[in-house]
Every structure is written in structure tokens, then in C-alpha cells.
């Protein structure tokens, strides 16, 4: 699946929108990156920009934006209320989907090195990208701000991580970091009392509340030996929260920043506030997500609430989102539109309808048309997705079968595995067509010069290899689906045994059909060693799938006879 990262550069210009538009135009010039938000502040003279996309493309867009900011912003003339030290003050990278923090740190270092080397801007790496402990804290890196940089560079302990230890009055310095995704999240209460909302916020936020002697509200504040206030920690890590009254809706809210949703996810924050509010006689009526959220956050929430009901979590993505929205009341104040709130949905390709978005009639009509795609590869993946869908259906029916309450979790696990395989195979339906288009695009490249001919040949060979790998993945996933199918034939709801049996027939067909595509595409690849290896593996999977199908069909026949 596609890796996605977010980048939130802060530029030291919040008044001249002409400058900001030139900077954001650099971001929009990079394919594979979407500009999500531009938030200028006049008082701070600072603009926060949010972009998201695939890692290499985001790094390129960020570099271009930093370069343009260095060209247009003169820090020697900058004044603003917010701490700052450079034209591009900070540039954090944030993991969004299918990427680890360790990988994001590597990308942050790559970006920092380019800024330092190619633009001669001093760069400090902070938070997870920090190369030494005290630089994790951005405030330490930015201490002294822009005006303190000349003296800072004289101190060997504050030598920049990348770029020269030399003061450039125009550009200043930049901090590049890697941090976790921050979610702004508000929880609605059936009260108008800000004081009561704040009490709940203090119950849950990591910082907690000030410790007092005797009466927790009016008692004397407890201090430590340094005279600092002592706090009683709240119940949720990586959470900041306050209570406030929203006049527009006539209710009080708990306003939260979840600074690391891998530590405290949205659904855990919601449930904890529900519990703490109930202790104070207050009911949570719903909640709202401010800004965008990664898809995984809502899928995890949907599964969490289904497990609480002891129901199967192996349901579709759209169903998990619906459960999450209803369970947390995300549509309490206004409609929750997934395409406008989920980052991955915001990034979906806008160029034409995907095959998997077609209804059944449209899909068969498109297949039967004179267009060469979708072809046998896409249809094989589609058949495979139907096969595992049948087995997943049996798992879900078994999970909810009367009298099998003690087995719900086991069948839920099989259903969840089936959904993952179904999603992979449906993705490959379109990916097979895209791989075909890549070959066509490669053949259309110019071939006038020797260099162009060489580049064209390489592009054709790379595209051909990918066109082999896609149907081979279909083979692997379709064969893997037979584990779920056989389990459902042997232990699933006996009333649906033939459904699982049909799934086995589909899986075998998907394997054999995809192997035909592997073989025909392999004929055009010059790397014969790779071809020999992939064909050998393909034959092994095909033989195993045929034998497995026969075994499963016999089990079905034995049960229905």
C-alpha cells in the first residue's frame, strides 16, 4: 500500500500573501503531493502550511518551498510575536500511513542534508529526528531565536546538524524534525459549565491538575523544594486538554490535542472522557474531529467498538468508519463526510473512475468493450476477491451464530484476515490495469538519441517487470486466501459450507488466470534468471492451489452428502 507522510513547514511571513502564494506554488508543482491547508497569522507574521503525499515527493516539495522562502523572505527585517529563527522556521515530517517513524526520521535527515548542502542554510534536527538528546526539544534548538544565532554558531556544542555554522542574516536557520501525528479533537458535553468541563479535562490530560492541601478546589497549592507547583497526573498520556464553552452550539466541550495517537488513540480518549464525565453526572453527547485524520485512526476505532460488543471486526472499511462515527458521535454537531476528513480519501486520484468503483453491470460492460483493459489480470484479481469475500462472509455469519457465542473472537480473527486479503486483491484489480498502462507509456517515450533509447528501453523493462509482479501477487494472495476458505469449510457455519466451497473454486481460478498473465509478460523480459525463478515459483503456487482446491471441494461434498 502507498506510504504517506505529512509535512507542516512554518514560514516567517504572515502578512504578504503574494510571498506565501509563491511558496505554496512550489509545493503544488510536485506531482504526488496535495496542499491541504495554508494558515497565515498577521500578529505572529508566520504561516503554517500543511501538505501530504508520498515520501520522496513530499521531500522534494518541502525542499522547493524552503528554497523559495529563502529567496523571498528577509529575516533581518522580520518582526513577529512567535519564536522564530529562520525564513523557514520549522519543517516537521509526520507519518500518516504505511510508514514507520524510523523511516520518517531517515527522510527528515535526507531533507535536512539537502537544505544544508544545496541552500547553505544551517539546520538543526529535532524531536524524533534529533541526533543528540537535548536537541529533541524544539525550544532548545531555537533558544536565542534569530537574533542569537551569531553567538550560537560560535559555540561548538551548537554546531548545526547540517549546513554551515555561519550566520546568514537573510535566511537564518531552520529546524527539521520528525514527530507523531497530532489530532485536534473536541468532545461535546450536555452542560454549559466551563468549570465542570475543565474539571473533566484535568481528570484526563497528562499534565493533570494542581495538587492542593485539603480541599481540592480551594486548598493551598502544594509546591516542591524549588517552589514549582506540584501536579496530580491525569489518566491519558500524550494528551493536552482544557474545557470551554461554545456559544455557537450552546454547549461546553473538552478541547483536546492528542499528540501521539499511537499512545492514546481517539477512541480511548473518547471512552475515558465518557467515564470521567459520568462520575460527575455529565453525559457525553458526541464529539468532533478538527481538521484531518489518518484512515487508521477511524478503522481502529471501529474495531474497538465492535470488540466491545463482541462482534466480528472483519467487516468492510466503510462499515468500520460508520461504526466509529456513530459510536463517538462524530456527526453530533454537523455531518461527518469521510472524503473531507480522512487524509487518504482526500488524496485519492481524481483522474477517472477506478474499476473497483464500477458497479457489477458497469464492470462487465467495460470488460466486454473493445478496450484492452481490464483484461485477464484484473478479472483474475476480481475473481480472487470474490472467493475470499465468500469465506469472510461465512466467518462473519459464524461469529454471530446463535449458540456459538464463545467462538465469536476466533471467527472474527478469520474474518479480519479475510478482509485484509479482499482489500489487497481489489487493489490489484486496478493495479493490473495501471501496470499495463505503464508499459504503454514506456513505449511512448522518445527514442531519437542514444541516451533516449537507453532510457526508453530501461523504462520498458522496468514496466514489464512490474507487470509480472502484479499478477504474481494475485497468485500469492489468492492462494493465501485458501487458508481462510478451508477453515470455514471445516469449522464455519455448516449452513454456508457451499459458499466457502465456491470461494475455493474462485481462488483456484484466480491463481491460474494470474499465472497466465505472469507467463505472457515474462516473455518480453530480458532478465532470464528472474524469469526462470518467477516461473518456477508460479508453477509451485499453481500446483499447490489446484491440489488445495480439490481437497476443499472433497470436504464440501462430504459435508453436504
Can you describe this structure?
This protein is an alpha+beta fold and 561 residues long. It has 3 domains: 4-178, Formiminotransferase, N-terminal subdomain (Formiminotransferase-cyclodeaminase, Chain B, domain 1, 2-Layer Sandwich); 183-346, Formiminotransferase, C-terminal subdomain (Alpha-Beta Plaits, 2-Layer Sandwich); 355-560, Four Helix Bundle (Hemerythrin (Met), subunit A), CATH 1.20.120. Helices cover 51% and strands 14% of the residues. It contains 17 helices and 13 strands. It has helices at 17-28, 55-72, 101-119, 138-141, 149-154, 194-204, 266-279, 295-308, 317-328, 338-341, 343-346, 360-368, 376-399, 408-443, 450-491, 497-522, 528-560, and strands at 4-7, 10-11, 33-41, 46-53, 88-97, 123-127, 174-178, 183-189, 209-210, 231-232, 239-246, 251-258, 284-290. Strands 1, 2, 3, 4, 5, 6 and 7 form a 7-stranded mixed sheet that branches. Strand 3 and strand 4 form a beta hairpin. The protein is flat and about 80 Å long. The mean pLDDT is 93.
Main features:
561 residues; alpha+beta; Formiminotransferase-cyclodeaminase, Chain B, domain 1; Alpha-Beta Plaits; Four Helix Bundle (Hemerythrin (Met), subunit A); 3 domains; four-stranded antiparallel beta sheet; 13 strands; flat
Amino acid at each position: 500500500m502507498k506510504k504517506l507522510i505529512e509535512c507542516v513547514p512554518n514560514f516567517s511571513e504572515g502578512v504578504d500573501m503574494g510571498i506565501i502564494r509563491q511558496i505554496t506554488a512550489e509545493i503544488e508543482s510536485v506531482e504526488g503531493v496535495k496542499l491541504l491547508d495554508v494558515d497565515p497569522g498577521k500578529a505572529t507574521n508566520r504561516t503554517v502550511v500543511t501538505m501530504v503525499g508520498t515520501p520522496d515527493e513530499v521531500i522534494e516539495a518541502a525542499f522547493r518551498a524552503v528554497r523559495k522562502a529563502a529567496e523571498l523572505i528577509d529575516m533581518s527585517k522580520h518582526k513577529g510575536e512567535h519564536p522564530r529563527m529562520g525564513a523557514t522556521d520549522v519543517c516537521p515530517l509526520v507519518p500518516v500511513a504505511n510508514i514507520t517513524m524510523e523511516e520518517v526520521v531517515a527522510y527528515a535527515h535526507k531533507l535536512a542534508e539537502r537544505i544544508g548542502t544545496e541552500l547553505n542554510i544551517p539546520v538543526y534536527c529535532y524531536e524524533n529526528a534529533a541526533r543528540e538528546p537535548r536537541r529533541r526539544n524544539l525550544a532548545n534548538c531555537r533558544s536565542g531565536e534569530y537574533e542569537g544565532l551569531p553567538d550560537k554558531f560560535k559555540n561548538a556544542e551548537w554546531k548545526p546538524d547540517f549546513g554551515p555554522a555561519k550566520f546568514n542574516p537573510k535566511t537564518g536557520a531552520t529546524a527539521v524534525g520528525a514527530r507523531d501525528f497530532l489530532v485536534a479533537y473536541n468532545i461535546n458535553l450536555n452542560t454549559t459549565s466551563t468549570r465542570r468541563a475543565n474539571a473533566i479535562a484535568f481528570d484526563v490530560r497528562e499534565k493533570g491538575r494542581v495538587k492542593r492541601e485539603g480541599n481540592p478546589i480551594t486548598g493551598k497549592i502544594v509546591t516542591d523544594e524549588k517552589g514549582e507547583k506540584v501536579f496530580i497526573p491525569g489518566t491519558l498520556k500524550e494528551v493536552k486538554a482544557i474545557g470551554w464553552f461554545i456559544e455557537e452550539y450552546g454547549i461546553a466541550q473538552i478541547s483536546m490535542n492528542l499528540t501521539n495517537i499511537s499512545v492514546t488513540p481517539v477512541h480511548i480518549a473518547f471512552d475515558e472522557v465518557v467515564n470521567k464525565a459520568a462520575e460527575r453526572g455529565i453525559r457525553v453527547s458526541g464529539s468532533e474531529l478538527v481538521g484531518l485524520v489518518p484512515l487508521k485512526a477511524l478503522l481502529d476505532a471501529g474495531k474497538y467498538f465492535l470488540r466491545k460488543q463482541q462482534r466480528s471486526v472483519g467487516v468492510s472499511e466503510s462499515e468500520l468508519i460508520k461504526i466509529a462515527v456513530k459510536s463517538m458521535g462524530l456527526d453530533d454537531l454537523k455531518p461527518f463526510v469521510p472524503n473531507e476528513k480522512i487524509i487518504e480519501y482526500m488524496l485519492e486520484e481524481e483522474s477517472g473512475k477506478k474499476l473497483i468503483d464500477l458497479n457489477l453491470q458497469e464492470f462487465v460492460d467495460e470488460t466486454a468493450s473493445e478496450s484492452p483493459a481490464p483484461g485477464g489480470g484484473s478479472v483474475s484479481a476480481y475473481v480472487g476477491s470474490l472467493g475470499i469475500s465468500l469465506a469472510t462472509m461465512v466467518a462473519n455469519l459464524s461469529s454471530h451464530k446463535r449458540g456459538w457465542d464463545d467462538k465469536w473472537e476466533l471467527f472474527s480473527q478469520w474474518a479480519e484476515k479475510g478482509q485484509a486479503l479482499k482489500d489487497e486483491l481489489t487493489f490489484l484489480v486496478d493495479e493490473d490495469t495501471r501496470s499495463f498502462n505503464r508499459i504503454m507509456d514506456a513505449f511512448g517515450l522518445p527514442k531519437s538519441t542514444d541516451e533516449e533509447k537507453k532510457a526508453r528501453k530501461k523504462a520498458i523493462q522496468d514496466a514489464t517487470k512490474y507487470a509480472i509482479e502484479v499478477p504474481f501477487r494475485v497468485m500469492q494472495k489468492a492462494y493465501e486466501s485458501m487458508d481462510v476458505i478451508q477453515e470455514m469449510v471445516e469449522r464455519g457455519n455448516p449452513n454456508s459450507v457451499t459458499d466457502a466451497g465456491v470461494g475455493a473454486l474462485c481462488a483456484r481460478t484466480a491463481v491460474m488466470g494470474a499465472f497466465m498473465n505472469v507467463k505472457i509478460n515474462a516473455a518480453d523480459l530480458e532478465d532470464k534468471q528472474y524469469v526462470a525463478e518467477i516461473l518456477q515459483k508460479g508453477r509451485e503456487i499453481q500446483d499447490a492451489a489446484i491440489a488445495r482446491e480439490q481437497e476443499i471441494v472433497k470436504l464440501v461434498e462430504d459435508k453436504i452428502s
